[in-house]
Design goal:
CATH topology of chain A: fumarase
Helix content of chain A: 25-40%
Largest sheet of chain A: 5 strands, mixed, barrel
Number of domains of chain B: 2
Distance between the termini of chain A: 30 Å
Structural class of chain B: alpha/beta
Number of strands of chain A: 7
CATH class of the largest domain in chain B: Alpha Beta
Largest sheet of chain B: 4 strands, mixed
Strand content of chain B: 15-25%
Shape of chain A: globular
Number of helices of chain A: 6
CATH architecture of the largest domain in chain B: 2-Layer Sandwich
Largest interface: A-B, 47 and 46 residues
Shape of chain B: globular
Order of helices and strands of chain B: EHHHEEHEEHEHEHHEEE
Radius of gyration of chain B: 19 Å
Helix content of chain B: 40-55%
Strand content of chain A: 25-35%
Strand order of the largest sheet of chain B: 4-2-5-10
Oligomer: heterodimer
Amino acid sequence: MMKTITTPFTKEDALKLKAGDQVLLSGTIYTGRDAAHKRMVALIQEGKPLPFDVENQIIYYVGPTPAKPGHVFGSGGPTTSGRMDAYAPTMLSLGLRGMIGKGYRNENVKKAMIEYSGVYFGAIGGAGAYIGQCVQSCEVIAFDDLGPEAIRRLVVKDFPLTVIIDAYGNDLYEIGRKAYLEEKNNGK
Amino acid sequence: MKTISQKTIIQEVKRLCQEANYELPQDVYQALRQAYDLEDSSLSKQTLEVLNKNARIAKETSSPICQDTGMACVFVEIGQDVHVEGSLSEAIQEGVRQGYEAGYLRKSVVTDPMFDRINTKDNTPAIINYDIVEGEQLKIIVAPKGFGSENMSQVKMLKPSDGVEGVKDFVLKVIHDAGPNACPPMVIGVGIGGSFDRVTLLAKKAMLREIGSHHPDPRYHDLEDELLEKINQTGIGPAGYGGKTTALSLNIETFPTHIAGMPVAVSICCHVARHKEVIL
């Protein structure tokens, strides 16, 4: 049932996943949310290099809490992905393969995901303490002045995720709800 | 006349900020457990189990339940016969500052909302609401509010002729719009009446009311039940993956209003409906 994936996360890997699949992710991923995306897209427009090579990588939309002394990471559940919709197609066009967050994505993002074979994973919103335990190392690699919004390189082990939108455009938010309502109506 | 020192207020607010972020309220715990028993699908059950586990880990390790440790919303009820030495507002802001620093909580507040957006690095200013009441008690409620759900809250100035159906339609529209963005299962507060500003405060107070409590007027009590049932029939479900539990609770607060109006506000919270209080 449970699939395992690791980074780098290739196009071939991405095409094997379907909306609704549950996966455990291990390897290196990068954090980035509102302000970091704004800066990264500005760098792209200026023709400057990004803080990390996004090709076949996964970005986690998160702004973690500060780590306590003796810990590598604090709490870190997903933030609402829709706020990154304005930037996601540009990132996907550069080879970004996966995004982790929660909540709806717009049609432009879905189209770009199909065109460039990207996958949108959901982590459980509100489970920050639980998810934080999957993080084995954390290092700020860019935009330190943004505090919780700085870009961090994380190494995660068995990070539990659900494929929300696959590289074919299937959306679990639509499928899951429809399936539930159909089952309910058939039961009546 | 009772005198309360700034130092006491700072210490209490500091403590409340941390406890609110580490400990899921008991009523939410119970509601999560009941929801788990109700769900059929394995994905829904699994999601609710993770939320339950998460809350246990947070409490045991004194870690934030959610990384969005919120903008600190503080509700103060101050008795007329209470005297605070120094500035009460400054003491509350200092308590928030110290609580977020000492508690390793995320600093999520930016200075200017549009142009600068520079992190204040200490999570101040907090949003403080004051009520002056009789007596010589000072009650402080700290309710850190995450913005994943706050962003999905809405207000609408309905016409009196829209009636109860208009209210129902609006509440359901807000829930549909929110969907998975607000981290379901949600805790919902609905305000009806008052004015444009007051109705949003009513909604937030309703959201903070205990799960399972009811509006004293049986007509609103019934509406609370009906709306919760309808919301849980949308199929949005835990994490939005489809299921029975879209909301754990829906409370309504009301206030008299103008002959021309019927303001309605819907305040949405995720399951992490944090609030801790102290009476001094």
